[in-house]
Amino acid sequence: MAQKAAAIVAEGLRKEYRQTRALDGFDLTVPEGTVCGLLGPNGAGKTTAVRILATLLEFDGGRAEVAGFDVARQAAQVRYRIGVTGQSAAVDEILTGRQNLEMFGRLYHLGAARARRRADELLELFGLAEAGSKSAKHYSGGMRRRLDLAASLIMAPQVLFLDEPTTGLDPRGRMEVWEAIRSLVAGGTTVLLTTQYLDEADRLADRIAVIDSGRVIAEGAPERLKSMIGGDRIDLVVTDAGELAGAARIVARICGAEPETRPDTRRISAPARHRVATLTETVRALGDAGIAVEDIALRRPTLDEVFLRLTGHRAETAGEGGGGADGGEPGRAAGRADRGGPERARDQTEKEMTV
Amino acid sequence: MTTATPSAPGAVPLQAPPETPLSRARWALADSWTVTRRYLIHWVREPAYIMWGLMYPMVSVLLFGYVFGSAMVVQGGGDYREFLLPGMFGMTMMFGIGNTMMGVTTDADKGITDRFRSMPMARSGVVVGRSVADMINSVMDLAVLVACGLVVGWRAHGSPAETLAAVGLLLLLRFAFIWVGIYVGLIMKNAESAGNFYALLFPLTMISNTFVAPEMMPGWLGAVAAWNPVSSTVTAIRELFGNPGLGGDSWLAQNAVLMAVVWPLVIVAVFLPLSVRRYRRARR
Asked: Domains of chain A (ranges plus CATH)?
């Protein structure tokens, strides 16, 4: 047990749909027992990558290994060792939660009695024991996602793929799913998690890989990545537009960087390298100068800002143009009316991040 | 490689994959049954779904037997409803394509097909399980139709063996159409386009000898109707049930029973491999 082996290895993966290149030299290594957050906007290729690694999609070039087995040549072996949850796999909506888990248990050949026992255990573990005899279609978004997660864990997989596990959930559902994921991670499962939210990757992942146009453009521990992109920011809104310039000077002195000012919204934004220290110092200095502030908060950079920093262009969201890489899966969005748009969900994340 | 399990209490050890052909076959059989069971549970939990399916043939018998039937005269003589019912049997078998297709497309759309595909279950389990469930459903459809037929005056006049053979030919046709349904369901992008295909099924079943003789149609359409696989089955079962038929001395009419076996086998030979291949490869 000298060093940790890699649970997921992808080398130069390529995948083309009719017109778009979904993956274009995708490289990724995830050490055993760690959580990797694959961060990127819609259409960056996240789902394509997960579907290839989970043996659901054939690819055009490159090589991939999961749990020590080649994804293309030893797909059956890979399937014994993985669980998939999220956009890429789902549960039966007519069946009850218990019937769903029982069915999947039978398909793992546990036998009827053990499948039933395992279903009860998992329902208990994910706080679904009471809802166990209700149809899955009557579940809330968070409950359904947890059932989904439970279904992936019947056999205690070595590698777990979570494809946007919280997209479209309300803040409460999101917290429930995060909680469930954290308890799994404590058990030592290797997890590859895709997300559009820096905040989510930051909370759950040991390492974050940022994906854009089908390739990983930055990778590292969340701390490193955040320092690369300038870390947290302080945002404030002054009450009187006339004091914007004065406030900006104070912020510039404390943050040691020229802040961005928006006269129309009276907003000032700057990197907050020392987080809470920066915040308190700013509050005190503004108070001393007699400048009234309507709102002041620390926040993580949004995905847009991360992308702007790393790529020089804004995150292009597929869907409007319809030409994105994951746009090769048009049926999916239509089939899932329970998902809120990414914009709405992002707003929720930002609110939560406000200190 | 002993990673701690995520849910230590009661975590299940990995099942050894089947090694011998025999144990593989046993796994495939068990997986198919599990999938069939899923649909049986659907019917129990949502009986309305299956009730609507059974309503359709009943309404059709009334509609075609009495609304249109009152204006119809059978060429060779005989009661129109006696002539019509075998046609309705054949038509219902063909409409099964739509049922199968909708089910397959919905599963793929919702992502449950992907969950099955990400599991180490037998690759054949999903499609075989589906086809068994569809066959059970078809037997129920057929039973309801036969009951309706008996009520409106249709009778099987042949020997018990001939009657059984006729039922067998109908189910054989349905079995063949399951694979058409699975294939079409797999290539459909979403439930919406599957719904559009559904609308296309109706004329496809009409362009046959179900309601009128193909000879009465314009030449080219009559040829299509005569060569429609449904037509062969319907001619064959009219013969076996001893119901009034269209007669005719074309090769197709003379060899209806043979063609009622050959057609389904050809359809299976084409669409079964296509479906399995499509299922194994990625959907999109």
From this structure: 6-94+135-227 (3.40.50.300), 232-299 (3.30.70.100)
